[in-house]
């Protein structure tokens, strides 16, 4: 007993001998940068959202929660919120699903061209988002776009429509582009994690007569639960951020706000209309949503872990 | 072999990273030509003559902030150096396409420029914020006073119907806070050659407009296309049409958000005609999905007869493919009845002097200097633009391109009108301008009726009135 209690004491003594000064010096720059560029702006945004300030903030007046209250009466904000919600519901799930399937195919089958495919699937990630947006706006171009031309070629000309100009389809054009753009990135992440799964498990499953599909469902997915959880959170934040660039480039938020997303509406109110206070309120709201969503999905994936 | 393949792939990945960086801007190479240009030598000689009579200023430092847009930086570089030699002062110029974002933090920090030149659709929200915050200087005295060469009051030298609009006096109190810069006509751009080949006449009334549409349809050409993604371009059709049908006063009322002004029977008739463009099959298919350059390209390939645009389109599209023999022409919105007055929308960009400027006297002198004949000619020569002065068209005609000059002929068809929405009251979060133009997409897609359109705009007018209290 006495020996046992001595040991931890010894360890504590070891802690004291840590080069505390050196650690502080190492941590200080990062700490300062984080405070200056992340914490202070966030707090300022929170503070500004309570004011009725413009782009210059020369004589703002304190309005309390008015900006937040107005937000839920503002039909354009609600529309942007709904659009972002639709994208968040659909895009991350499909992206991760495709990424998993592609990763499984590329790492489990003995395709000769897997290196080539891996490069090609990763390609969209290296191109700047603006260029991606421009490329896809030409894919959906009403007269010379490949989608409409193809539909006419196979005799489905009736289905052709101005995809990005139609309020029913504009948002989904952005969703498709987002999925195309992000799948390769998550595929590479999934492949790296799949390579870590021991081959013996798969071999044993093969001996038991499991099909590829069975192996995918019963071995790959459960063993990758952690990384899938992380990529899902990443895909959600990616959707939130990147949908702004695409909607600005491909549809300009139109037609009549049908493809406006939260960050775009924030930009519109802040930089075009000069309502900085209101824009900050929207920012704070979006931030809250992102944090809540990522907390939920982290909880879900770690709960799954405990069950295991 | 395998190495080669992976090397190629790696290289193409690297190349793709730079995909956005192509197309160098052609304008950057020109400043070096400025010095050897005979035209500018003449004008600088003229300004030296003036220098003997130039006023002396105590504070010789002037800070100016200039938006660098389609007109390029050459005019500003030249005129600033002329001003410096004439007055013996030192001008610090910041010029950038994102000037609003650059000077905003400076203004917040109290380092305010003395003079600002900002584009019309300022996306940084700087000027609209300055207006809302009452942070611009009242420059009525400059316009009441004489010009530098022509000693008649400056306000009489400026184009009629510019200074009293919201573009220049945003609070509608008769005081001028923004000085007009250039004036360019907006309207319906068409291909003169196409009209000649088909023996078409330019339409005067809406009926003739749609008749022309029927004739064009037989040739497989649509009557109109527009930048569906940026419906704001429709202003050059909408406001003149409303001014013609309901009177210029109605247009002024709309620009100051008077409730009821966007729903009178005359305005409704125009809105219905706008809808007829789509329901009658006169709109080029797919227009709603196009951005400005895409729609302009379609129009220049003779896919559509008209496109609402301005005289900058020639410069903007100078490298774009076009139908053979394409020649720029500009006409304006049709009227309800033959013989009704027609209007041409004139776009006016502005100069302003912040209220907190360090050296307002020199800034005002700089403003007067910009309105001299040499400056106007230099602007035409270097930038191809025309100042918003009565004499400017005459002075500029030897310098501007043929397309720009011939598009100015549109003023033979209609009177100039300037339309700019008044400053929104502080704390106002609706933007009536967006309600007007964003709805056009739904109108063209058939998801909205003209009545709903007008009600939506009226609702935003009411909200503006309520915010103003």
From TrEMBL, chain A:
Q: Which UniProt keywords apply?
A: Cell membrane, Membrane, Transmembrane, Transmembrane helix, Transport
Q: Name one GO biological process term.
A: transmembrane transport
GO annotations of cellular component type: plasma membrane
Give yes or no: UniProt keyword Phosphoprotein: no
Question: How does this protein sit in the membrane?
Answer: Multi-pass membrane protein
The Swiss-Prot or TrEMBL record describes its family as follows: Belongs to the binding-protein-dependent transport system permease family.
What protein does this entry describe? Sugar ABC transporter permease
Phylogenetic classification of the source organism:
Bacteria, Bacillati, Bacillota, Clostridia, Eubacteriales
């Amino acid at each position: 007993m006495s020996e046992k209690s001595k040991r931890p004491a010894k360890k504590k003594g070891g802690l004291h001998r840590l080069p505390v000064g050196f650690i502080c010096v190492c941590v200080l720059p990062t700490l300062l940068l984080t405070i200056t560029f992340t914490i202070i702006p966030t707090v300022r945004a929170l503070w500004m959202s309570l004011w009725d300030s413009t782009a210059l903030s020369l004589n703002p007046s304190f309005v309390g929660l008015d900006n937040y209250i107005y937000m839920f009466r503002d039909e354009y904000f609600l529309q942007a919120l709904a659009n972002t919600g639709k994208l968040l519901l659909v895009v991350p799930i499909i992206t991760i699903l495709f990424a998993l399937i592609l990763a499984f195919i590329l790492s489990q089958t003995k395709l000769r061209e897997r290196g080539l495919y891996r490069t090609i699937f990763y390609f969209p990630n290296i191109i700047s988002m603006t260029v991606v947006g421009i490329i896809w706006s030409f894919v959906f171009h009403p007269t010379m776009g490949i989608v409409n031309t193809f539909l006419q070629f196979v005799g489905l000309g009736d289905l052709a429509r101005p995809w990005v100009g139609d309020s029913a389809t504009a948002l989904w054009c952005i969703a498709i582009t987002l999925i195309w753009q992000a799948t390769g990135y998550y595929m590479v992440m999934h492949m790296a994690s799949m390579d870590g799964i021991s081959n013996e498990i798969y071999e044993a499953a093969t001996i038991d007569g499991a099909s590829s599909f069975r192996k995918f469902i019963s071995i790959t997915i459960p063993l990758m639960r952690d990384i899938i959880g992380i990529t899902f959170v990443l895909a959600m934040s990616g959707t939130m951020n990147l949908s702004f660039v695409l909607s600005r480039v491909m549809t300009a938020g139109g037609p009549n706000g049908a493809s406006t997303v939260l960050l775009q509406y924030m930009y519109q109110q802040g930089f075009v209309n000069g309502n900085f206070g209101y824009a900050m309120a929207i920012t704070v709201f979006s931030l809250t949503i992102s944090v809540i969503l990522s907390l939920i999905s982290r909880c879900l994936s770690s709960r799954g872990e405990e069950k295991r | 072999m395998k190495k080669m393949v992976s090397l190629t792939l790696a290289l193409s990945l690297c190349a793709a990273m730079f995909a956005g960086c192509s197309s160098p801007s052609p304008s950057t190479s020109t400043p070096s030509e400025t010095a050897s240009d005979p035209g500018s030598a003449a004008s600088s000689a003229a300004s030296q003559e003036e220098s003997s009579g130039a006023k002396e200023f105590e504070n010789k430092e002037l800070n100016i902030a200039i938006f660098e847009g389609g007109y390029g930086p050459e005019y500003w570089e030249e005129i600033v150096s002329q001003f410096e030699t004439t007055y013996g002062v030192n001008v610090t110029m910041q010029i950038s396409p994102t000037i609003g974002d650059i000077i905003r933090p400076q203004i917040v920090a109290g380092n305010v420029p003395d003079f600002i030149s900002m584009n019309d659709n300022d996306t940084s929200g700087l000027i609209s914020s300055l207006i809302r915050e009452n942070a611009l200087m009242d420059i009525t005295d400059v316009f009441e006073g004489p010009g530098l060469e022509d000693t008649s009051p400056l306000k009489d030298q400026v184009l009629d119907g510019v200074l009293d609009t919201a573009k220049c006096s945003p609070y509608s109190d008769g005081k001028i806070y923004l000085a007009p810069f250039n004036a360019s006509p907006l309207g319906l751009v068409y291909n003169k050659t196409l009209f000649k080949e088909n023996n078409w006449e330019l339409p005067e009334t809406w009926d003739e407009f749609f008749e022309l549409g029927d004739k064009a349809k037989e040739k497989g050409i649509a009557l109109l296309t527009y930048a569906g993604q940026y419906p704001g371009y429709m202003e050059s059709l909408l406001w003149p049409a409303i001014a013609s049908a309901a009177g210029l006063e109605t247009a002024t009322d709309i620009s100051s958000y008077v409730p009821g002004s966007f729903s009178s029977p005359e305005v409704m008739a125009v809105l219905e005609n706008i809808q007829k463009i789509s329901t009658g099959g006169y709109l080029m298919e797919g227009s709603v999905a196009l951005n400005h350059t895409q729609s302009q390209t379609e129009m220049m390939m003779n896919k559509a007869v008209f496109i609402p645009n301005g005289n900058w389109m020639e410069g903007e599209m100078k490298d774009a493919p076009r139908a053979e023999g394409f020649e720029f022409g500009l006409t304006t919105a049709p009227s309800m009845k033959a013989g009704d007055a027609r209007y041409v929308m004139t776009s006016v960009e502005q100069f302003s002097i912040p209220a907190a400027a360090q050296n307002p006297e020199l800034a005002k002198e700089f403003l007067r200097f910009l309105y001299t004949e040499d400056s106007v000619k230099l602007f035409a020569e270097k930038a191809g633009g025309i100042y918003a002065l009565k004499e400017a068209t005459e002075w500029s005609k030897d310098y501007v391109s043929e397309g720009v000059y011939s598009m100015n002929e549109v003023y033979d068809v209609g009177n100039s009108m300037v339309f700019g929405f008044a400053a929104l009251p502080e704390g106002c979060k609706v933007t009536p301008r967006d309600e007007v133009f964003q709805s056009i997409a739904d109108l063209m897609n058939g998801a909205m009726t003209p009545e709903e359109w007008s009600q939506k705009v009226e609702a935003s007018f009411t909200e503006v009135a309520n915010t103003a209290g």
